[in-house]
Amino acid sequence: MTRHRIALFDASAVALSGLCLVHCLALPLLAAALPLFGAWAEAEWVHILFVAIAVPLTSSALWRSHRQHRLPAALRALAAAGLLGLVLGALGWPAHEWETPLTVAGSLMLASAHVWNWSRRHRH
Question: Which parts of the chain span the membrane according to its record (predicted)?
């Protein structure tokens, strides 16, 4: 796998994390003004869709990068915690009130892991 392709995976994963963050923080504000966006912001399928895209994309990007240059344990833990936050948020576990905080924290951790991985790769 080429470095360019791994960079594309990381960039896609960062973009998806950013999209999740925008979804969680901006859409509720838009929902107050536009009922159509309100329905989309609360739709459970949106959360499941984001997680269904994020998990394989992130896993693939980090696995491919790990095969080239072993990832530090802290980076792997950060990515795993981020994915776990996204999954738990999408599932509404442990309670619905935790959905947004878990998703936002997971998204930030995951984006941080991808940025860290991207900067590591450019140093090698």
Answer: 7-33, 45-63, 75-95, 101-119
Q: Would the pTM count as exceeding 0.70?
A: no
Is a pLDDT exceeding 80 seen at residue 1?
no
Q: With beta carbons less than 8 A apart as the criterion, state whether 110 and 13 touch.
A: yes
Residue ranges per domain, the chain?
3-123
Mean local confidence (pLDDT), 29-45: 68
Cα–Cα distance measured from residue 88 to residue 95, given in angstroms and rounded to the nearest whole number? 9
Q: What is the amino acid identity at position 67?
A: R
105 token code pair? 């924290």
Neighbours of 95 (CB within 10 A): 7
Confidence class of residue 31 from pLDDT cuts 50, 70 and 90? Answer: low
In angstroms, rounded to a whole number, what is the distance separating the alpha carbons of residues 91 and 97? Answer: 11
Q: What pLDDT sits at residue 75? A: 93
Three-state SS for 23?
A: helix
Report the 10 Å Cβ neighbour count for 25.
13
